[in-house]
Amino acid sequence: MVGGGRFELGEMWTTLATTVLALRMEFLIRRRSLSAAAAACGVPLDTSPDVSRTELLGHGVPAPPFSTAEVRQLRAIHRVLSRWPSTSGEWGRGTCLRESLLTGYYLRRRQPMLRVGAGLVDGVTVFHAWIEVSGVNTGADGFVPLVRMPQRVHG
Predict the structure, then answer these.
(1) Of 4-8, 22-26, 51-55, 84-88, which range is least confident?
(2) What is the DSSP track for 102-120?
């Protein structure tokens, strides 16, 4: 029993594995570039300027059906990261990049892409990370993806 509810053996092992993966993600985020950390997790960073193929999940777009194992993994990510320390000093806050990398890792067979964007929250610029799977945006309502602008050739 954990937290007053039943905690099945499969959930326990998945949570333990997710905790270990989250520690690895933390190391990657702190020691490598974002694109290298994302690639190590099997979820490439997408900074392409073409975002027209992306649709927002929850606006009439059905979520991709998840297997039982994927649902268990996604629940474990939430369980682990809701107790994760952050630079703001609030537990479980500001973990969107870690959540995105873990989600991308678990859903890597679906060829996810990592997006990073910016938006205004109460007049303050805030950055956010999310995953796109099969052209479906999993959590960037109100955020504009950051894109790499094409290089200009000086001649």
Answers:
(1) 51-55
(2) HHHHHTGGG--EEEEEEEE
Q: pTM (2 decimals)?
A: 0.79
User: Under a CB-based contact definition with an 8 Å cutoff, are residues 136 and 113 in contact?
Assistant: no
Q: Which residues of 4-32 are buried (b: 16+ CB within 10 A; e: fewer)?
A: eeeeeeebeebbeebbebbebbeebbeee
The span from the CA of 94 to the CA of 81, in Å, is 10
> What length does the chain have?
155
Using CA atoms, how far residue 114 sits from 1, 10, 123, 131, in Å, is 35, 28, 25, 5
Digit-coded pLDDT (tens) for 19-44 = 999 999 999 999 999 999 999 999 99
Q: Find tokens 């107790």 and name the residue.
A: 83
